[in-house]
Amino acid sequence: MHTSFIKKAAVFGLALASTSLFAEATYSPHKYQQNDWFAEFGGNTSMYVNPAGISETEQLEFSAAFFSSISGEASQEYVSLTFPMDYKHTLGFSFFENGASIDDGPSYGEYAFMFGYAYNLMQFLSLGVDLSILYINQFDEVKQLTMGADIGISWNPLASSKYGYLLVGVAMQNVLQPAVSTAAEESGMKFVLFTEDEAYKIPSNLNISLFYRGLNRALEAKAEVSIIDVMHESAEGGDGMNLETSFTLTYFLSPHLGVRVRFTKECYPVIGATVNVKDVSIFRYLALDLEMSHDDLWEKKNRGFIWAVKLTSRFGDTREEKIGEERYRRLKIEPENDYRAAMRLYLNRQFLEAAYAFGKVQTKYPAFHLVDQAAFYKAKSFENLRMHKAAKAVYEDAIKRYPQSDQRAKYHFQLMNIDYKEGKYTEAMAKYQNIAQKFGESDVKADADYIAGQIKFEQGLYQEAVDLLAAILPGNANYFYARYTMGIAYSRMGKWEEAENCFRDITEQPVSNQSERDLQDAAKVKLGHIYFSGEKPDIATAAQMYGQVEAGSPVYDEAMLGIAWSFLKVNKPDEAMKPAQWIINNLPESFLISEAYLVIGYCHFMKKDYEGAAKALEQAEKRTEQPVVSVAARDSARQAFDAMQDEFDSVQVQALDLARQLPTPRVESKREALRPTFDKANQSIEDYAAFTQKSIQSDRFESNRKRIQEDAGFTLATVKTKMSQGSASSSEAAQELEELEDLE
After folding, report:
1. 3 state SS of 514
2. What single string gives the DSSP state of each residue in 226-290?
């Protein structure tokens, strides 16, 4: 194809938007990008004028427009989409199409695809850039594909309800110039770069734009000054650099209806109207603009009446709504979900996983309103694993990190509680004094009183223990435990009436959990003992209290033994043997087995069954020869515990460190690697704790063990004597038994 034809075709296409198809085609290449009917500064789809302008969009916006002469032989269309991502980023896409046919022959078409991006450098300043891909179809003879780019800035120096809203923009169009080949070429597609020698470079233009909105949003004014052809050689044709201006005024008669006048860069006046509605169906905003003019009014162009219609729609959440929802999710929903997930692990007694989960909340959401509680339960999780070193580190860190938290009193109390659990009574009481001074009015004070009372009780200071525990009232979680300890303390001080009142208080309170129910059963047993052993024994009431304890209770064996003693006390050996035998048959690990055998021995003695008595008493004597937990066993267990204590301390340090980190794949792998070591160490700790508890029970049973051993041995000797001397009457046996045994 001849070169001159290509040049003419290119010039024709570039002039299409503003040049009559019926008159002589004048050279005005800048008109291709200066059509201010569509892309005017201040609108959200203004990438042609200034790519930074799209930063003003606040929600997903779609627009489409159509510009045409009355005959329809010259037209331009476009669609555009802008998408705000957050406060700083905005994406845009526009598609423009020019086209016409000559004498019903082949069509000339130009199609521009624009991809834009704007970045808010700061609240009032934005930078924008776009990439345009231009496809030119020259009468189906030559098809070309070329690229260009624009850059711009947008400045918002004024934004107030009093003075209005002002936007200033500066942009360089075609900073990367699209090139149209002018070389002789065969038919087909060609990709043209701006570096090609035989090519026409579409001019670069400098646009300076202003947009103002004021009078309570009733007035919009727009003005543009464009310096055309700033980087284009005059040898390529045209008039060289020149200046063009345009302005637009829109006045809103109501928030939904406005009238418009415009003077375009093509130098003719335009009138129009805009109408909009809000919050309809899926649209948050929907506007329709209609504008029209006659280009012969200002300068004869022979196109006659021209018009344009534009539809703009906005839908979806605004930037503020999306960011607000994201922030709400990040600051409220996500941390609350993670907090609840951690609490589920805690309530399911998955304490190591709970410690990690609460650690995630504490690390990832430091501004979360429950972060101080997350720290508390993180430490409690470690504490429940007997990882006191890790727990203390978390409590101490929380005291420093959250000085205004209402959890501070709890942090101090838990540190006191850990000292109590570890037998560090002096340190625990020092912390108690601190709590009493600083947090005397808090709910924690009663909990601290309870621990202090328990310490005084274990030190044998019973009256001091009672004085501290008496302040704990019904409704407090420790009320049952405090009253029980008070009852034991009064018993050891010989204040039986006060002891009875404490145990009765427990039995008269409604229970809220299994632990309180178990403690209530224990109080019933203690009441039974008081009635049984009082100065005026009330055996019937004692048996009634024992009988209220149901099977499955931790003190059911003691209650059954009390019933057995009660029957024995009223000289009913057959009835007495049944509960004693039940203990032997069903609770082989009970500490009361030896005493059950003692009761059976006494029953056989009363029935003059000396052989049966001897067998039972021998069992009682045999089972009390040594403490339940020997000194050797204690030493062995302690040595094993000390041997693995360093390993357990190391596990605590590692677990605490991992709980401070977010659960990345690397951290998760470390947690998995630690798990076997933790399970081994934790099992050793649990075993030692169970052994220690058994040792405590053995110590408490020690006085009974010696009594049972002495009573069984003495009675066994008596039985053997009777067996050698002959039988005695039942009444005589009972009387002799009374003399042998002081029932308590």
Report:
1. helix
2. EEE-TT--GGGSS--SEEEEEEEEEEEEETTEEEEEEE-TTS-EEEEEEEEEEEETTEEEEEEEE
Strand, helix or coil for residue 84: strand
Between the alpha carbon of residue 258 and those of residues 47, 210, 272, 306, the distances in Å are 24, 20, 9, 20
CA distance from start to end of the chain: 126
Residue at token pair 């690390």? 363
Q: Strand, helix or coil at 577?
A: helix
Partnered with residue 78 across adjacent β-strands are 65, 96
Residue 41 is classified by DSSP as B
Signed CA dihedral, 466, 467, 473, 476: sign only: negative
Query: Mapping DSSP to helix (H, G, I), strand (E, B) and coil, where does residue 420 land?
Result: helix
Both structure tokens of 15: 């002039």
Confidence of residue 199 (pLDDT cuts 50, 70, 90): confident
**3-state SS class at 552:** coil
Are 706 and 593 within 8 A, CB to CB? no
Instruction: Decide the pairing of beta strands 188-192 and 142-160.
Output: parallel
**Residue-level pLDDT at 3:** 38
* Cα four-point dihedral sign 486, 489, 491, 494: negative
3-state secondary structure of 444: helix
pLDDT at 632: 79
Task: Give tens-digit pLDDT for 251-309.
Answer: 999 999 999 999 888 777 899 999 999 888 788 899 999 999 886 666 666 667 888 89
Alpha-carbon distances of 315 from 76, 83, 348, 416, 673, rounded to whole Å? 26, 10, 45, 59, 50
Distance CA 606, CA 72 (A): 126
Read off the amino acid at residue 210.
L
Distance between CA atoms of residues 271 and 452, nearest Å:
89
* Residue whose tokens read 């001080």: 493
User: Would you state the structure tokens that stand for residue 390, as one six-digit string?
Assistant: 């890790």
Q: Residue 662 burial (CB < 10 Å; 0-12/13-18/19+)?
A: exposed
CA 504 to CA 318: how far, in whole Å? 66
Unique residue bearing structure tokens 């160490």: 681
Query: What single-letter amino acid sits at 464?
Result: E
Cα 47 from Cα 41, distance rounded (Å): 9
Exposure string over 71-109, b if 16+ CB within 10 A, otherwise e: eeebbbebebbbbbeeeeebebbbebebbbeeeeeeebb
Q: Count CB atoms within 10 A of the CB of residue 704.
A: 15
What whole-number distance in Å separates Cα of residue 48 and Cα of residue 116?
10
**What type of residue is 715?**
T
Residue whose token pair is 């200046």: 243
Residue 353 CA to its chain's centroid (Å): 15
Distance of CA 305 to the CA centre of its chain: 63
Tell me 10's DSSP state. H
Q: How far apart are CA 664 and CA 94, in angstroms?
A: 41
Q: What does the alpha-carbon distance between residue 79 and residue 73 come to, in Å, rounded to a whole number?
A: 20
Residue 1 CB partners (closer than 8 Å, separation 6+):
141, 142, 184, 185, 186, 187
Local confidence band at 236 (pLDDT 50, 70, 90 cut-offs): low
Residues 6+ apart with CB under 8 A from 22: 302, 303
pLDDT digits (tens, 9 = 90+) for 692-706: 888 877 777 777 888
**3-state SS class at 120:** strand
The CA-atom distances, in angstroms, between 489 and each of 216, 492, 532, 546 are 81, 5, 19, 21
Cβ neighbourhood burial of 525 (10 Å; 0-12, 13-18, 19+): buried
Instruction: Give phi and psi for 669, each to the nearest 5.
Output: -65, -35
Q: Tell me the backbone φ, ψ of residue 742, rounded to 5 degrees.
A: -95, 100
Q: Determine how many CB atoms are found less than 10 A away from the CB of residue 432.
A: 22
SS3 173: strand
What separation in angstroms does the CA of 386 have from each of 199, 562, 621, 683, 696? 81, 36, 38, 11, 18
pTM attached to this predicted model: 0.59
Report d(CA 334, CA 434) in Å as an integer. Answer: 37
